[in-house]
Design goal:
This protein is mainly alpha-helical. It folds into 3 domains: 4-106; 134-218, no CATH class; 238-299, no CATH class. It has 9 helices and 2 strands; from the N terminus they run αααααααβααβ. It has helices spanning 4-12, 15-55, 61-106, 108-161, 167-180, 186-204, 207-218, 251-259, 273-281, and strands at residues 238-248, 289-299. A two-stranded antiparallel ribbon has the order 1-2. The protein starts with a helix and ends with a strand. The model has no long low-confidence stretch (mean pLDDT 75).
């Protein structure tokens, strides 16, 4: 079975034939240039012969013989011109045939190109999937770490509250921990700061705000930084394009999605698969549709 490389090498073997065609074109072009120059001279001669013919009146033997000589001269010139043109016409025809054959051979490169393209696209799709899996793993790790920090913050508060200290003493203890523990997590710091603010408000008599601070202690408003997997390495001149291709496999299920208000009514305009694919790319997928991700790579010079 012919391999991809063999296909490419076979197609690239057309180079000598291409050079031969180029040489033939160059030779034919030079001959055409010479004939063109001769044709300009012939045109001038033709004008002279035409003027002479139009001005000739055959009224005697001498005029008759002149006309005869001109016919013989011009017939010979006509034969000479046609004999020079005939091989050029044949060469041009041969060049055309050879060029068409060369074109057929060159198109064999297309099948090899498609094989390379598919393998590059498959690799890119695999890398994208690995990237997504890595993002899921990193997000899960971040979630667990956040839960650990929240538990540590609550434990720290419980420890402080369990000492039975007066409000002023609790305030001082919290300030000391905030100042002296550089390893404290952000969640622990936010939690202690919220507790400190609530204690200070209790001293000031701002009781209506204490409940709000207590609630903040229980549910710390902390958003972990965005988690992203390392980007896929790219070669110079290559880019990755991802699109979602939608195919309606259960029209009734899709209509139910539309009826429930979960899918846009515009999606059923002759089942706008492009729109459905674009929505899937944004994370909006509906029942009744199968989704397939198509990945393509683009290569430039």
């Amino acid at each position: 079975m012919e391999t991809t490389i063999e296909k490419v090498e076979g197609a690239l073997a057309i180079t000598p034939a291409l050079h031969a065609i180029e040489d033939g074109i160059e030779s034919t072009t030079r001959e055409l240039q010479r004939i063109t120059a001769d044709a300009r001279e012939l045109q001038l001669a033709n004008n002279r012969y035409t003027d002479e013919a139009n001005g000739l009146t055959v009224i005697g033997q001498a005029d008759f013989e002149l006309a005869g000589r001109r016919v013989v001269e011009l017939r010979a010139k006509e034969k000479e011109i046609l004999e020079r043109i005939k091989p050029l016409k044949g060469a041009a025809k041969s060049l055309h045939t050879a060029t068409c054959d060369l074109e057929k051979e060159a198109l064999k490169l297309v099948s090899a190109k498609d094989i390379f393209q598919k393998k590059a696209d498959d690799y890119t799709a695999e890398q994208l999937q690995r990237q997504r899996e890595e993002e899921v793993r990193l997000k899960e790790e971040a979630r667990k770490e956040r839960e650990r920090q929240i538990a540590a913050a609550k434990k720290r508060l419980e420890t402080l509250r369990g000492k039975g200290l007066a409000v002023e003493e609790q305030i001082a203890a919290i300030k000391k921990e905030l100042e002296e523990d550089p390893a404290m997590s952000e969640i622990e710091a936010v939690t202690l700061e919220a507790e400190l603010k609530a204690l200070e408000m209790s001293l000031e008599g701002t009781h209506e705000k204490i409940a709000e601070q207590a609630e903040r202690i229980e549910e710390v408003a902390f958003t972990p930084p965005p988690v992203a997997a390392p980007a896929i390495p790219q070669m110079k001149g290559a880019s990755v394009k991802v699109k979602w291709v939608a195919e309606v496999i259960d029209p009734l299920a899709l209509i139910k999605e539309i009826a429930a208000g979960r899918a846009p009514i515009s999606a059923v305009k002759a089942f706008d698969l492009t729109k459905l694919g674009n929505l899937a790319k944004d994370g909006l997928k509906y029942n009744g549709i199968s989704y397939k991700e198509e990945v393509s790579s683009r290569f430039t010079k």
